[in-house]
Amino acid sequence: MRSGSTSSTLLLVGALLLFLGLAGWQLGLPGLHYDEAKEAGVNALEILTGAPITAFRQSGVTVAGRTFPVMVQDYIGALNVYLAIPALALSGIGVPNLRLQAVLTGLLALLFLVFAVEEWLRRDGEPEPRWRGGLWLALLLAAAPSFVFWSRQGIFVTNLQQLWGYLALWQGLRWLRCGNQGALWVAMAAAGLALYAKLQAIWLIGPAGLLLLWLWWRQGRRPVVTGDMALGAALAFVLPLAPLVWFNVQTGGTLISVGSNLGTSYYGVNNADLLANLPVRLGQLVSALRGDQFWYLGGLFGNPAAPWLALALVAAALWAAPKRMAGPLLLLALMVIASLFTVSDLFITHYALVQPVAVATVAVAVAVLVSAAHTPRWLSQAAVAAVLLWLALDLAATLSYHRVLAQSGGLADHSDAGYQLAYHLQHNGLGAPIALDWGFDAPVRFLSGGTVTPVEIFGYESPVAADDGYRERLGLFLGNPANVYLLHAEPFAVFAGRREIFLDEVSARELTATVERTFAQRDGTPLIELWRVETP
Questions:
Q1: Is the overall model pTM greater than 0.85, yes or no?
Q2: Could you list the residue range(s) of the whole structural domain that residue 487 is in?
Q3: Are 393 and 431 members of one domain?
Q4: What total of structural domains would you count in the chain?
């Protein structure tokens, strides 16, 4: 038994090292996405350099005349900002430096989910087997394209909600098993931190809370909850949410954002039409298991067998031990149902929180098939073979993504053409370009070390049409020939209609607009245009 346990530990460490190698390779690619810079890099840079801090909605905690942010979006907390500061302070301002924290977050999230799977198996009376569920999970996630590449750009998908959410799940299960007061308090604090990191974490925290409550009620020897224990748990949950509460006291931003998108979201999703949203989300779950959604890395690869292997393994485990699979399957189903509502769009990146839980369900199934006394030997061996095949296909897909990424540098708003843009602006004294589309401001500010500050005037009111004040804002800048203007090449425009109004206003004022410089993807496709407006 001891030899088997040592082998399991070595395999687990090997899987973790494999993940670190794949996630940490060429961390500077793809190019820095707007959300990475906006939700961590820029504020961290400002705090480190002593520059004025651009707190979201001008809300935060003011110390010595500087307002430190508590949120970076209406529903995303500023945790990534403060966690990025040590890495940037020690290693300097750079994209790999910023992403290092995200990769380490992914590693910890993986470990916490490994422990949660182990805890679930212990709760079910699982003996000390040679092959544990946590090991199977590590092997199934270590090279998974979705987990690897979403962890590399973890700020982009707010993978802190994974870390805190999986910690809450692990400690909640541990409390159920052993009644440890500290485990309950850690679980509640982690749940609060997950929600503060991003409100989307309710997809996990809500279903997990319901599942744990149901298990507690059904458990024969359930842990006793005293008044002091309950009070401590409530405080542990509420305290991490204090910055979110303070933000809403100052601005009401979260309440406004959620309230105004309850019916139809910002990008036009009908939140009441759950039956239309369900197939979209189920398709995204399948795609996340395959890992074939990363077109912006330069190609499409994936593990086509993953969904089928997952289905077969879970079905076999349901046949072998239905009661032991009920909890993980219920949690996954409730998370999918929770995902049918959105304040933005049905983005597949939201499933960065769900995909590891789906894989954890498969890992529990494998553990059941390998260790259950009445499972035929051939079925146990087939389960092990399925894991090894899954790992091999994941590894092939992830390496293929890395290969094409080294050639493409990333595509569209993930392209490393943004590095060229920031360098050109910084070294040509163009410190305040006018941004007529989304995607320029935060990356340029971070990449230029704060020396270039684009002025966003396109307006966030609607992504499909400019607001009524856009022409007026534009007119304030057109009279100065020293100004330069940033637009995406037409196929890559994010906020529609801004280019047309820009050219219309230039023509109405009898001015001449010319493209001074174009920045292209590595394949030569024009991506970003630098315009100048002058008197003919």
A1: yes
A2: 415-534
A3: no
A4: 2
